[in-house]
Write a structure and sequence with these properties.
Length: 239
């Protein structure tokens, strides 16, 4: 990610913490941004994701721990950079997690928040939003913390509200082109269908079943593309 590399090119970074790292998608971005001597720690409450992350990143300077973002088991001022990628809308206690991220950040350090944004979307990106929001709906019925996505201005407002000063921000695309391959679109339809099947026996099943044929028609007409992500570089406000 060239914008991130440009921002940090003249900054000294020794220790990085990635909160809610999952299987390590943003770890790859961090690895490509900083040199091989930078220590990167990824934490996530899901051991199944960490197992995959450890297999993807066997490098000595990258390690992983099973931990919740709401209670970080690190000393104050331990990291030069603390990141949170596509996890903001998953947090059970958003304010507590951001407070913990600020606590373990060194004075003058940087917080990176990368979050899928629900702004001015193309029709193909609206299809990704439709699938994502349906998954968040099903997850919440199962008691899993999963909010719908926010608009870019809402993400920035959340960051400012939690006593972080925005230094820079930019949008970027993870999927550069619309995918119209039949096999890929079938997989997306099956994902929606599988989520629908989880609602069998619940009143929500009948309330949402009409979404499936609409989603299928939209996939065939517009294809599929992930929505833009907003990357925000911020620092903790004094006081």
């Amino acid at each position: 990610m060239k914008q991130l590399q440009h921002f940090f090119k003249d900054k000294t970074v020794h220790q990085i913490l990635d909160v809610g790292c999952g299987s390590g998608d943003f770890i790859k971005v961090l690895r490509d941004t900083f040199d091989e001597h930078t220590q990167i720690t990824g934490i996530d409450p899901g051991e199944q994701w960490l197992k995959e992350a450890r297999a993807r990143f066997p490098q000595e300077n990258i390690n992983f721990s099973c931990m919740s973002g709401e209670t970080l088991d690190f000393e104050d001022a331990s990291f030069d950079v603390v990141s949170l990628s596509n996890a903001l809308h998953h947090l059970k206690d958003l304010e507590q997690t951001l407070c913990e991220m600020k606590r373990v950040l060194k004075p003058g350090g940087w917080i990176i928040i990368n979050e899928v944004a629900n702004g001015d979307l193309t029709e193909a990106q609206e299809n990704q939003k439709m699938l994502h929001h349906f998954k968040s709906f099903v997850d919440r019925l199962h008691g899993i913390s999963h909010r719908q996505t926010w608009k870019p201005e809402e993400i920035l407002a959340i960051i400012e509200h939690n006593k972080l000063s925005v230094i820079d921000s930019f949008e970027h695309l993870k999927m550069k082109k619309v995918n119209v391959e039949p096999h890929f679109l079938d997989e997306k339809y099956w994902q929606m269908e599988s989520l629908q099947e989880e609602l069998q026996g619940r009143p929500e099943y009948d309330q949402t079943k009409d979404q499936l044929p609409v989603f299928k028609e939209r996939l065939e007409q517009y294809g599929f593309q992930t929505a833009p992500q907003l990357l925000v570089l911020a620092q903790a406000k004094n006081g």
